[in-house]
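Page 42, continued from yesterday. The earlier attempt failed because a stray header line got pasted into the input along with the sequence. Redoing it now with the clean sequence only.
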Amino acid sequence: MTTAHTHSGQEPVQRSTGRLVLGWILVGIPLAYGVFQTLTQVAALFG
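This time it went through. Structure tokens are written below.
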């Protein structure tokens, strides 16, 4: 197995901004909904 090394120790990463945004949306929306539901139920439990 061969490994590529650069002098700076970092390899350049090229990612499509659209795919990155789509990934964050696909993860962020359900996560935000789940956090909202949890906080709503906790408020009802203690309130």
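Notes: The helical segments are 17-46.
Reminder to self: strip header lines before submitting.
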